[in-house]
Amino acid sequence: MKYDFNIDMSSDNSLSLILRNIRPNSIVLEFGPARGYMTAYMQQELQCKVYGVEIDPEAAAVAKSFTEQMIVCDIETMIWKDKLPPNIMFDHIIFADVLEHLRDPEQVLREVAAYLTVDGTILSSIPNISHSAVIMELLSGEFKYRSLGLLDHTHIRFFTRSSVERLIEGAGLVAKEWNSTLLHPEHTELKKQYADLPIEISRYLEQRKDSHVYQFITISGKPGEQAAAASYLESDYTYTDFIQLFFETDEGFSERASQKKAIITSDGVYLSYTFDKMDLARGKRLRLDPTNFKALIQISTITLKNQHAETVIEFRGEDLFEIIRLEHNIVNVGRSENCLFYVTDNDPQIYLHFNQLLLENVHQLHIEMRVIRESDQVITNLNEIYGQQIINLQQLSRSRELQLEQAEVRLEEEQQIIKNIEAQKAAIELQNLELKQSLAEQKTALEHQSSLLEAAIKREHGVQLQLEKLLTSKTWRLTKPLRVISRWFIKK
Fold first, then answer.
1. What phi, psi does 118 have (nearest 5°)?
2. What's the rounded Cα separation, in Å, for the pair 19 and 219?
3. I want to staple 374 with a disulfide (CB 3.0 to 4.6 A). Which of 125, 331, 369, 379 is the partner?
């Protein structure tokens, strides 16, 4: 249960790099799932069927609920082979920080390869013993085991890139893709720094291939008739102290749309930070978080470069204030030409305003900046001098936030009033429509009655004419005696 981590898919850690290569709805065999963080993600987010093999009974009991089957055993005993369902084949087999704990990892890989589908993959993460931090440890005469990390005291095997390649080839597999997690020496559990070494040695160590590779992430499979060359990818560094550039999207600012660079030293020396692949949509903003800790910082230059690393425009001194707007947890403490700022908290924010047409040709943003940590005496003095100013700025910020919240409440109330008016308007329009329909029906009925009345009047007029014609006729006069006699008899 030692390596028991939550899953952060937004960062390039070993677990997220493996999970991004798991196909949804696939069948997976996971060795060493611990409490099942990866297992749960595969089952719930990717809808995979996962089978687990875990040596720790307590961890296995927790992870079991996310699996089709949990087998508790030592991987190298091969007991798991007898307990798996007959003829089962897997789309993916995972060894996340597991192979370095085995006596014969090559034999284990050779055995599990038989359970791969034709296009199935074996995914592994393995620590890099050639990391500069370990070499610095050796140069200081130490090789002290730790409870976690590169020199974990439970590691039986140690690997470099070439020995990982031999491991994969020896198991009869082919590496299809390589990736890695990156960590500067001072950000590892060994806490080593290049500054502690002679400059020639530190430069040599830093420029070596894999000098900052913390873990190798490999994706392997069965050899095909025409195996393609393995692709090599590089992940972002994992940092404790960093400068970060954000690119605004329709959802605002987020970690996904940002780049980080390590702040390696903080002794007041100017350092360069270059952000590549500027991906900013038209009309969106750039935000620079110059540190993630309290500090005094001084920006020397901000340079925009094209894809050929040629300078498009450079800002320095007073010109920097044409593009810089201090937004949050940072104040100007020097003359305008100095660009000296005090970071008051661990989330300082600076908005960078550039001409949009200018940014269309920009591929790199290059910053020269020096950093002095808050613990230095100069920061203490600045805190005394500018403390009230900072408090005032924070109070002003809170006041503006409150005003904004009140304005939003008023806006919501006005929007609700508008909605009510629109609802009343719709109701009136409906009533008018119903009234018009009723009037139209009544008009039709009246017109029908009128036509019937006209027809009746015409019939009555016709009868009247016939009666008048009868009373004036010769027949009516000749029969008068008969009508008199008839009335006499009626009276009798």
1. -55, -45
2. 11
3. 379
- Cα angle vertex 146, ends 145, 151, to 5°? 60
pLDDT range class, residue 215, cuts 50, 70, 90:
very high
Residue 154 identity (one-letter amino acid): T
Mean pLDDT of 100-118: 96
* Non-local CB neighbours of 52 within 8 Å, separated by 6+ positions: 29, 30, 31, 33, 36, 39, 60, 63, 64, 67, 69, 70, 71
What is each CA distance from 477 to 148, 445, 467, 473, 474, in whole angstroms? 139, 47, 14, 7, 5
DSSP 85: P
Distance (Å, whole) CA 300 – CA 432: 71
Task: Show the CA angle centred on residue 234, arms to residues 233 and 239, nearest 5°.
Answer: 160
Q: The pTM is what?
A: 0.55
In this structure, of 8-12, 325-329, 468-472, the range with the lowest mean pLDDT score is 8-12
Pairwise pLDDT comparison (228 vs 140), residue with the higher score: 140
Task: Report which of 92, 88, 261, 83 is spatially closest to residue 184, judged by C-alpha positions.
Answer: 261
Distances, alpha carbon 117 to alpha carbons 120, 178, 347, in Å:
5, 20, 48
> What share of the chain in percent tops pLDDT 90?
39
Q: Which amino acid is at 392?
A: N
Extended strands (E) in 184-284? 213-221, 231-232, 237-238, 242-247, 258-262, 271-275
- Quickly state the pLDDT bin for 4 (edges 50, 70, 90): very low
pLDDT class of 482 with cuts at 50, 70, 90: confident
32/30 Cα distance (integer angstroms): 6
Q: Which residues pair with 94 in a beta bridge?
A: 30, 123
Question: Which pLDDT score is estimated for 476?
Answer: 77
Using DSSP's 3-state secondary structure scheme, residue 465 falls into helix
Strands (E), 317-388: 324-328, 330-332, 340-343, 349-352, 364-373
| pLDDT higher than 50, residue 37 | yes
- Which stretches of 32-75 are assigned E, i.e. beta strand? 49-54, 69-72
- Residue 159 has phi, psi (to 5 degrees) of -130, 145
Mean pLDDT, the chain, integer? 85
Q: How would you write 292-314 as a 3-class SS string? A: CCCEEEEEEEEEEECCCCCEEEE
